Amino acid sequence: MSELEIKDLRVSIEDKQILKGVNLKLRQGEVHAIMGPNGTGKSTLAYTLMGHPSYIINSGEVKFKGRNLLDLSTDERSRLGLFLAFQYPVSIPGVTVANFLRTAVNARRKANNPEDKGIAVPEFRKLLKEKMEMLKMDSSFAGRYLNEGFSGGEKKRAEVLQMAMLEPEIAILDETDSGLDIDALRIVSEGVNLLRSQNIGVLLITHYQRMLNYVKPDVVHIMMGGTIVESGGAELALHLEEHGYDWVREKYEPGFVSAA
Ligand code: ADP
Ligand code: MG
Questions:
Q1: Which protein residue has the closest C-alpha to ligand 1 atom 18?
Q2: Percent of the chain residues topping a pLDDT of 90
Q3: How much is the pTM?
Q4: What is the spatial distance between Cα 223 and Cα 7, in angstroms, rounded to a whole number?
Q5: Most CB contacts within 10 A, which of 7, 152, 227, 260?
Q6: Which atom number of ligand 1 is nearest to the Cα of residue 38?
Q7: What are phi and psi of 16, to 5 degrees?
Q8: Distance CA 184, CA 55 (A)
Q9: Which CATH superfamily is domain 3-252 in?
Q10: How far is the CA of 145 from the centre of ligand 2 (A)?
Q11: pLDDT over 60 at 87, yes or no
């Protein structure tokens, strides 16, 4: 069973300390939500886990499947079964969704078995069709250039499609809910739930609790000032929905006084 274990992770960017000791243990099959005000380091954590070069690790350790994740390249991390859905996906002109996905699926297969010759085209088409139907995506989508001219909702769906095709063991979703209307949110959430039922572990980073109405978290963490300050069950997210973040800030941010 895969698990992701983060121990006392400290990360800075441009000499500014952002993560100040993050601890977290996520097992396959679990959904953990990380919530928190803007600017507290949630995306920094996601990018660090994926190996973005701008983020400097000052100390701490991340274990994934018994490996030292921080020693691996982004590519190796992804081949090992880690997936990150970005808050702001980039577009790749000239590369279709289908081609992109086939390349990605083949890379993953090859990592598991160096002898693998790649997925046969008919098999790939069948798999893609199946997953696209699950996400209620029009079949023409596969022939479009990745993310080029995609609406916010389409980008997010493309990411969940990518996740469904790659079948990662742990997925990190950074604000996958942002910019989605309620229908798109429901469809994307259904996709995440389906993957969860296939025993994937999900780290769901979000500012709002609305996605958590559809994807029920096992654990909710609140991040403030670069550390996790509170952890609890789904009720913690509901509490935030009702009371906002001021009570957290009053408790953990020196000098903060609520305007209310
Ligand atoms: P969140 O996702 O919780 O909103 P981020 O991780 O994006 O927070 O940002 C945390 C802090 O890091 C913020 O204060 C932000 O201004 C700073 N930060 C993020 N990216 C950069 C960067 N490229 N250069 C300098 N500071 C950055
Ligand atoms: Mg963010």
A1: 13
A2: 52
A3: 0.89
A4: 15
A5: 227
A6: 4
A7: -110, 125
A8: 32
A9: P-loop containing nucleotide triphosphate hydrolases (3.40.50.300)
A10: 26
A11: no
